[in-house]
Design brief:
The structure is a single chain. This protein is an alpha/beta fold. The protein folds into three domains: about 70 residues, Arc Repressor Mutant, subunit A (Orthogonal Bundle), CATH 1.10.10.10; about 110 residues, Aspartate Aminotransferase, domain 1 (Alpha-Beta Complex), CATH 3.90.1150; about 220 residues, Aspartate Aminotransferase, domain 2 (3-Layer(aba) Sandwich), CATH 3.40.640.10. The strands form four sheets. An eight-stranded mixed sheet has the order 5-12-11-10-9-6-7-8. A three-stranded antiparallel sheet has the order 1-3-2. A three-stranded antiparallel sheet has the order 13-16-15, with helices on one face. Helix 2 crosses helix 3 and helix 12 runs parallel beside helix 14. The longest helix has 26 residues. GO terms for molecular function: DNA binding; DNA-binding transcription factor activity; pyridoxal phosphate binding; transaminase activity.
């Protein structure tokens, strides 16, 4: 087919692949390309534009990931049309701010990298999830096929041997924290990391529990600071949120030994433990102390919170208590997200996605670290997950950096809000998974300037 003009400016600072993807998007939204049109092969388009095939292949990959185009085996690449949730990135040469929530590119932590999803595999999973007949009765445990995929995932990527009977489906990590919290005696004391995940703090308090803050340092949770008489300890040992440290081997052993000696439960939130870029993912606390550790996992960071799917691997008594709560309240995790996750993992798509996600986020992390260093600032945290910590000298500097970035069109997350008590440190918790690659590229120079405050 004849393509509309696709001008490429080799003198611009914007990559040629990004320019080409912009041009094809614009041709689609403008009507020059319509749904069902077959695009030229990457080789033919490269020859026509006088660029390398790497450029055209990267542009097509971006359009496929965003849902503007789809690949059909043996037939080529076809225009799908403008996805309802997509938007055309604003070229970096203009002074306009890319569109987004409240007009800002959001670099806070906690969002998944949905751009890394293989959209063809994603659609296959949803179609497969729609095949079974509608459910007649609620299921408090979780679909067998979902739990089987979780077991395979935990063994291959987290080194945790488990049986499907050990697994309960959940609505995600925060939902699972709330469910386990309701199995504890009213007013029981639960130790949490400080700074830490404030949604977990809220879930515990909403269950009528007393929350006690325990400090965190470069080796993770300070285990000796956990007070006596604690009923449970909530922690993020693989990648402490938000400081980014990992719980040291010595402290892991100490925490499990204390849990056994004092009879408390350890809630291990493994929200992004699969995502490491320096070494293999770290062993789970649940593998070290399966009798005292409840392992929490989620699909939200691996794939998307759209699924509302997570899992709990816990001692039998904990599982029984959670099921009893569900029986009394009628609560149970939705099966739809479980079906999609199970279908996505059944034929290797989940493992392929995880490899692709690690490559993508590793590259993004390198770009973020370079931008922070260009401002003369340091980065804390392991080479893992989807955020880094940028320490700052005080709360006033933190506020100034956040305000300067917002004025430039970028939303940053201050460390202060991650404390339940008055903050002991200041900094920026800088996420890099949520925005599109073009948005991140656009935003990082602005982050560098804001950090120079």
């Amino acid at each position: 087919m004849d393509l509309p003009p696709l001008p490429l400016d080799r003198d611009a600072g914007r990559p040629l692949a990004a320019q080409l993807a912009d041009g094809l998007r614009a041709a689609t939204t403008g009507g020059a390309l319509r749904a069902g049109d077959r695009l030229p092969s990457t080789r033919a388009l490269a020859a026509a534009l006088g660029v390398s095939r790497t450029v055209t292949a990267a542009a097509y990959d971006q359009l496929l990931a965003e849902g503007w185009a789809e690949g059909r085996r043996g037939s080529g690449t076809f225009v799908v049309g403008a996805p309802a949730a997509s938007r055309t990135p604003v070229p970096a040469a203009t002074a306009a701010v890319p569109e987004g929530d409240a007009g800002l590119v959001d670099l806070s932590a906690g969002s998944p990298c949905v751009g890394a999803l293989d959209r063809a595999a994603w659609r296959r999973a949803w179609r497969a999830a729609a095949d079974p007949a509608p459910d007649v009765m609620p299921d408090p445990v979780g679909l067998p096929e979902f739990r089987a995929v979780v077991v395979e995932h935990l063994l291959r990527h987290r080194g945790l041997p488990a049986h499907p009977a050990d697994v309960l489906a959940t609505g995600g990590s925060t939902a699972a924290i709330g469910e386990v919290a309701r199995t504890l005696p009213p007013g029981a004391r639960v130790a949490v990391e400080e700074p830490g995940y404030q949604r977990a703090v809220t879930a515990l308090r909403d269950a009528g529990l007393e929350v006690v803050a325990v400090p965190v340092d470069g080796a993770g949770l300070v285990v000796e600071a956990v007070p006596a008489g604690t009923a449970a300890v909530y922690c993020t040992p693989a990648h402490q949120y938000p400081l980014g440290a990992r719980l040291s081997a010595t402290r892991r052993v100490a925490l499990v030994e204390r849990a056994r000696a004092e009879g408390f439960l350890v809630l291990e939130d493994d929200y992004d433990g699969e995502l490491r870029y320096d070494v293999a993912p770290l062993p789970l606390l649940a593998a070290l102390g399966p009798d005292v550790v409840a392992h929490l996992g989620t699909a939200s960071k691996l794939l998307t919170p759209t699924l509302g799917a997570g899992w709990l691997v816990a001692p039998p008594a904990v599982r029984a208590a959670v099921l009893a709560v569900r029986g009394r309240t009628g609560g149970r995790p939705a099966r739809a997200g479980q079906r999609v996750f199970a279908a996505f993992g059944a034929h290797g798509d989940l493992a392929r996605h995880l490899r692709r996600l690690r490559r993508e986020l590793s590259g993004r992390r390198s770009a973020v670290v370079a931008a922070v260093h260009a401002a003369g600032r340091a980065v804390e945290g392991d080479a893992a997950g989807a955020h880094v910590l940028v320490p700052l000298p005080g709360a006033a500097t933190e506020r100034a950096v956040v305000a300067a970035a917002a004025a430039s069109g970028v939303a940053l997350d201050g460390l202060g809000r991650h404390y339940a008590a008055p903050p002991a440190r200041a900094g920026i918790v800088l996420g890099y998974a949520g925005p599109g690659s073009d948005e991140l590229e656009w935003a990082l120079p602005l982050v560098t300037e804001a950090l120079r405050r």
